[in-house]
Every structure is written in C-alpha cells, then in structure tokens.
Amino acid sequence: MEGRSRRIAIFGGTFDPFHNGHLRMALEVKEGLPLTDLFLVPSARPPHKPSRPMATAEDRFAMASAAVAGIEGISVLDIELRNEGPSYSLLTVLEVSEGNPGADLLFLIGADAFAEIATWHRYRDLLAACDFLLLPRPGVAPEMSFPPEIRIEPEGNRCYNLPGCSYRLPGGRRLLCPVLPVLDISSRSIREKVRGGRSLRGLVPSEVERHITDHGLYRGEERG
C-alpha cells in the first residue's frame, strides 16, 4: 500500500438481487488494489431508478451480506437503509469518511451511472469528496462514459496493481479506469428467470438463490 494511509472502497448499488457480476467485480478490485476494506452499500431509495426496487431493502441487504459472508475485507453497510429520504451517494461517502477518519476513500461506480453523474445530488461535492473507480461495461471504452459537463484530464497508467489508466477530476481527485473482467449479468435478467421458473445457477451465489427461493422474491410482475 502506498504510504501508511488506509484506503477504503465503497461499492453502492440497488443489488436487486446481488449477483455474481457484483461479487466478481468486488473481488477483482479488493485483490488488485491496496485496500483495507471494501464496503457494499445497498441503496434503500435510489433517486435515479424510475421505479422502486422489487425486493425490500432488508431482503437486498440480507442477500448481499450472505453472498460475502466469510470473505475477508468485504462487508455490507446499512447506512442508506437507516437514513430517511433518498439514498444520496454524497451523504454515504461523508458518513463513511466520518466513521473512518484519515482514510482515503474510493467510490466504485458503473460506467453507465458515471455517464449521468452530472444529474446527481450535489455531484461537484461528490467528485471532490473521494477518488472514483469506473466499473466497465462490455465493449464500451471508458471515455465513452465521461459526461461532457465535466473536465476530465488524462493522467497515465496509475491503477496500482491493475492494468488500465487514470484521469484527473475537477478539484484534483482521481478517476481510475482499470481493465477488469466483466461478467455480463444483470439483476433484471435474473428477476426474469425467477418469474419464468428457470435456474439461477452460475448467476448468483448459492446463498442468494436460497434467499430468493425461501422468501418467494421476484415472482410478481416488474413495476415500471
């Protein structure tokens, strides 16, 4: 690890449900970067989703927790489940920072979400609050996800132990764009398979599949 500071990654998402694509990405980042901890943060009321999540916040938290149980350095936080109102990423980052004084924070964000970050709540404050790591999409170059409203300058090949490149964000924070293996799995496709009575083997951890079955999740129609 560079220096002696702690480096913590925050991986937020609806996780409806948490699947093997999420898990593989978390493991790749945890093993490839000098991280002390990686926190999964299920969103309770995501402000950018057109409809409410299909599963309750409690179910989504339980599935993520079961999926990473026993994996050293990866855990799940209920920050956004405890707070009232929309789940704003800036508030989550600030709360994690307050609970871990002196730690360097790294925010993991999907390429599709980063493309729309200029629409997020106080996005300039968020960009100044921590470094970012862009989670790739299959067949999409990182630069295609850069919002035109934000000036992003190339920095070089500085993704620690991962291949890739990095950029400078306004205010001096960094955007890491590592080359990572991508499992083309979506939560929506998993929900559709559940409604169709099809197997989830290979798509979600066995603990998640068991929770979905035991609690009868995703058998109804999609909303929105």
What does this protein look like?
The chain has 224 residues and is α/β, with parallel strands linked by helices. It has one domain: HUPs (Rossmann fold, 3-Layer(aba) Sandwich). Helices cover 31% and strands 19% of the residues. Strands 3-2-1-4-5-8-7-6 form an eight-stranded mixed beta sheet, with helices on both faces. Helix 2 packs antiparallel against helix 8 (206-214) and helix 4 runs parallel beside helix 6. The longest helix has 13 residues, at 20-32. It is globular.
Structural class: alpha/beta
The CATH fourth-level homologous superfamily: HUPs
Distance between the termini: 45 Å
Strand content: 15-25%
The first-level CATH class is given as Alpha Beta
From the spread of the alpha carbons, the general shape counts as globular
Could you give a short account of the major beta sheet?
Answer: 8 strands, mixed
* CATH level 3 topology: Rossmann fold
**Mean residue pLDDT:** 90
Indicate the radius of gyration in whole angstroms: 17 Å
Please name the CATH architecture.
3-Layer(aba) Sandwich
Number of strands: 8
Please trace the helix and strand order, writing H or E for each element: EHEHEHHEHHEEEEHH
Unreliable residue runs: none
**Major β-sheet strand ordering:** 3-2-1-4-5-8-7-6
Total count of domains: 1
Q: Total helix count? A: 8
Helical residues, percent: 25-40%
